[in-house]
Amino acid sequence: MFINDYFVAENAFNITKNIRERKRKLTYVRFVDFMRLASLVLFIFLMPATFAHTGELHETASESLTHQFSSTTVLALTVVVILASTTMLLTYKDSLKESQKRIIFGIIVVSAVVSTGYLVGNTVYMSLTSWSKGLVHWHADFEIWICGQKVVLPEPTGLANRIGTEEIHHHGDYRIHLEGVMKEREDATLGNFFDAIDVPFSNEKILNVGNGDYCPDGKKGSVEMSVNDKLYTGNYRDYIISPYSQVPPGDFIKIVFE
Predict the structure, then answer these.
(1) Which candidate, 191, 218, 193, places its Cα nearest to that of 205?
(2) Residue 175: in which H helix or E strand, if any?
(3) Facing residues of 150 across strands?
(4) Which of 9, 65, 74, 167 is the most exposed place for a label (fewest CB within 10 A)?
């Protein structure tokens, strides 16, 4: 009888041991799956900032780009922390003490509060200290003509589907897009747009032609610019895009070499 009880107890012990071992393996598998999920989430959140200039011809540094990247990073890390904490709660809910559960829950709450405060505060700061005093979403249409031929610019490629920077770009639609915070006055200028898309531009030059160059018909050409069908005589590069989201009343800018 004693021997039978011993073997029963031993079998029960082995069964319990096997169950614990399976639980440990299952926990490990869940942890690995979580790390894969967390890596995927982190990549998705960082992707807009990392590939913001994919397919662009030119990239300019700006404080607002740094702001966007840092904000995206904070948001991504917050999501990972919350996912990790939640996974721990769900995986070890039966073995965690109440005090440990409260600590993990506190980490979730603090992460959410701190990241939200940072994002809101950083956005408000950028808006208050910027030239535009807040977010803008302006548009202007443009055309380039050289010796009677309309210039066809390269189409955007890549995930971002734009040529230019996050703040000033086009989508192959010959429409200038100003989006976000314009930190300085120069950020909203026509010169900044053409710099962003890597097109040489000034009162004397557009693309690969300049004042004094000849067209195929033998005539000497010069660069002229009109805004809303009116000849513009100021510094072309310093022209500030009008603050309209629709065209019209937004600008129609035509640059002609002939």
Answers:
(1) 191
(2) strand 175-181
(3) 145
(4) 9
- In single-letter form, the type of residue at position 67 comes to H
Going by the DSSP 8-state scheme, the letter that residue 208 receives in this structure is T
The single residue listed with the structure tokens 């990239």 is 59
Three-state DSSP class for residue 223: strand
Residue 177 near residue 163, CB atoms below 8 Å: no
DSSP 239: P
The crossing angle, in degrees rounded to 10, of helices 63-91 and 2-50 is 170
The pTM of the whole model exceeds 0.85: no
The strand pairing partners of 210, in sequence order, are: 205
- Within 10 Å of residue 236's Cβ, how many Cβ atoms? 23
Q: What are phi and psi of 206, to 5 degrees?
A: -145, 125
In three-state secondary structure terms, 202 is coil
**How far apart, in whole angstroms, are the C-alpha atoms of residue 108 and residue 184?**
37
Strand pairing of 135-146 and 209-210? unpaired
Q: Taking the CB of residue 33, how many other CB atoms lie within 10 A of it?
A: 11
Q: Coil, strand, or helix at residue 73?
A: helix
Residues of the chain with pLDDT under 70: 1-72, 122-133
The per-residue pLDDT for 94 is 72
